[in-house]
Fold this protein.
Amino acid sequence: MMPTVMSTVKLLLVEDDASMQAALQRALGRRGMEVFGCTDGRQALAQWTATQPDVVVLDLTLPGLDGLQVLAQARGMGLTTPVLILTARGTVGDRIVGLNTGADDYLPKPFDLDELEARLRALSRRRPAPGAEPGAGPQLAGHLRYDRESGAIYHRDQVLELTPRELALLQTLIAKLGHAVSKERLFELVFPGETDVQYEAVEVVVYRLRKKLAHTGVTLVTLRGLGYLLKVDA
């Protein structure tokens, strides 16, 4: 019988502990994984888009931006790579927050290396082949076209002029077209790391964006108690 050959998994490891990162890079590298390292939350998104990994391992405690902020921004940008959160924060509450932000799995420290490898390989198999990923191409909504690769949103082939906050909010809503997104989730994506800003600031961005969406074939709807929803006009 021929031995089973495991496919190479391209892994982005975002971990600020240098000794932990070096140890994992060596250990997972010996197990046939191609590991790219990153130690700073602000650099993680650039590294993520540059390497196009099969799986991301993300620590929560990072300099620059913490792991949840990195994850929220990545999902807002349309990055759908499976993410495993690896952290010393092992409470149920932390796990729920991580999964609600967009993580796919969660492994508290200390952990078993065999279990980590098994989980990473399972997550890598979830990712469709290039070109087959749902939503990988442009998404249409009314007269709008969302180019996930560049992050730009077009209105009748012209780039819609939006502020960075308006763009982050619209990217999130158009990616969840027809589904409500909570004010809390939008706040995390539109105001990442800005602890001195109130939740009500989202309403200001919504108000301005709603005016810019006039005549685009979509309407930004407020759902009291649920959040906001983008719907295509009849």
User: Anything to note?
Assistant: The first helix runs from residue 18 to 30. The longest strand covers residues 9-14.
